[in-house]
Design a protein that fits this description.
The longest helix is centred in the middle third of the chain and has 9 residues. The chain is globular and about 25 Å long. The chain contains two helices and five strands, in the order βαβαβββ. It has a five-stranded mixed sheet with strand order 2-1-5-3-4. A hairpin with a 2-residue loop joins β3 and β4. The protein has 83 residues and is of the alpha+beta class. The chain has one domain: Beta-grasp domain (Ubiquitin-like (UB roll)).
Length: 83
């Protein structure tokens, strides 16, 4: 299982802050997971359009080619601005 976390505006758009997902065969990295999630359609398609979307795997900043294993925690969050 993967634990997936959604932060900031993604949480609002998707209507959830977290979910658990069985790691599907063929999904071996963050890019594959992102493609799987966006394929759900509807608001999930917006994951592919967020500029500068950030990823973390097990609380470490990650890249699209960062590998995933069962038991990992994956976080998606948009860039944050402050003032």
């Amino acid at each position: 299982m993967l634990k997936i976390l959604y932060f900031a505006s993604l949480r609002e758009t998707l209507g959830r802050g977290a979910e658990s997902l069985e790691l599907p065969g063929g999904v071996s990295d963050v890019s594959g997971l992102l493609q799987l999630l966006t394929a759900r359609g509807g608001e999930w398609g917006q994951l592919a359009t967020v500029k500068n979307l950030r990823y973390a795997v097990n609380q470490e900043m990650a890249q699209l080619d960062s590998p995933l294993r069962a038991g990992d925690e994956v976080a998606f969050f948009p860039p944050v601005t402050g003032g």
